[in-house]
Amino acid sequence: MSDATTKPMDDIMSLCKRRGFVYQASEIYGGINGFWDYGPLGAQLKKNLRDAWWEDMIMNPCWGRTGPGGERVRCVPVETCIIQNPKVWEASGHVGGFNDPMVDDKETKQRFRADHLQGGYLGSSPAGDPALALAQMQGQITKVEHIPAFTITAGGPDEAAAILLADRKLQKLLGVSDANILPSISPGAAPLLQLTYRGQPAFAFIFPVSGAVQEHAHAQIPSPFTGKAGSLTAPRQFNLMFFTYTGATATENDKVYLRPETAQGIFVQFKNVVDTTRVRVPFGIGNTGRSFRNEVTPRNFTFRSREFEQAELEFFCHPDDSFEWYKFWRDFRMEWWQSIGLAGENLILREHEKDELSHYSTGTSDVEYRFPFTAPGFGELEGIAHRGNYDLTQHAKHSGAKLEYFDTDRGETLPNGAKKGERYMPHCIEPAAGLDRGALALICEAYTRDESRPSPEIMKFHPRVAPIKAAVFPLVNKDGMPEVADRLHADLFKRFGRTGFVETDAKQSIGKRYARMDEAGCPFCFTIDGDTLTDQTVTVRSRDTGLQDRIAIDKVSAFLTDALLA
RNA sequence: GCGGGUGUAGCUCAGUGGUAGAGCGUCACGUUGCCAACGUGAAAGUCGAGGGUUCAAGUCCCUUCACCCGCUCCA
Q: Is A4-94+257-396+427-445 a domain of CATH 3.30.930.10?
């Protein structure tokens, strides 16, 4: 087993470039932050990974295993658009949830939502009358010159008042003491505090600090963390989603989003799939493709890219069965990643803690890999989430479509023996994998240094995902060997050329040709030598051990077939 | 977003303000008898980009971009 913590990421990245696995996007123009391209070997590696997912999730789900209810697992594919009606993202929560302007406190490095900034506005009126002060204040509160004496981050004014009262340390920072909440002047009015502010008795109303004030006067607004002005930035949009415009006019009305996940395309087409393809719950719908997220900090090679590819399955089932299905998929997905070469202790299945869960989820697990740049920690390859009926319910609400499923296998048994049927909103288990992260994990896991070998760098890919499946070499480029090698190569190419590259090379020393194949991760090399010409055998040289066997030349295909299926 | 580091050939990296370099790799030819062998030769560079100082900038200054590391943020 290879230990990821000892693998230098720089060496892996260097090999990725040198051998054509990964290139920086737009490299000759200086690159572009958060985007990476795949070279020939990387593109084939990722395709093999995607194909493996498709085969084991869609074509022959779970290798033909039965699910918790004893029935064969059934899945169908869709391929949905990157650009959807913008309402899809309102329904899914992606628009509302991630478009909030954020403010940074440059001094404490804290970041908070601009609409959570509550201001304490000191009241002043000749007679100390709060009602008069409030009336006066309400006329001015939206004016840019009207700066609060102190600020608090909270979901609303009442919460802010409660936080301030409860937190003595915060009071000290902000210059507040002896604070009490006075009865509100009128129902729904801003909370009124009686307090001492910087030694002077005063009263204060808590109002949200308006976006306009924050925009224009952020330098004067005191920080909610230090009480000092000058460290807050203006509110800034942190857009998770990329957007563009449909049509040539490009007005705000034409704004559309590039999807941040492929899953929503599945939910949106759920009804069509049910209506047109005779699927019956429980069943899954798979979708692969590019997604886009405007990550704040793209980092760690291809791990957090702004454009990335997902392979997502939404598995729909009856609510009563959903937890069993959740466990089933969680365990299968872990096993699947192990089956393609992430078999060691660098791979873990991690069940989320209760406080990590989304409000609608009753269970989520991550398949995580210990990348060199996360070690000793782990990075997520795939999340398996129990999403309940959240998504279908959201889309039913927003679109008005009826997305409930009528299950004719459930309900009371009728006198004629048939079931009465049951109408319900299916629950959904979502195994959502990142293909680029998967490919990166395969690369990191495969990368091996063996200083005892003349060519120390070896990519030990599982044969199923290896971009180069086999190579055929004449030991020397004469004496009829090249001709035999060409024939064997042509034969293997015809049989295996759909699954990956099949190479041949007659140039330079045999050791150099083996070494090149080791570095590219080709699992087997077949070499034609002098004996081949007399006894029709070739040597099979194994990448991982460097050892070689002799087998009959007409058994090479069968040998390779077995090896690739193993 | 903040702080630190790096950027010179495909890769790894030297390079004192004064001619753009090495090793490896790649390619060609020769040789070859199982592990980056050897010989000869060749191609390959916007020195990350832009500006400035200077007689002269890979080298000094400013700006910017990308990558790496640490925070921060984010599902």
A: yes
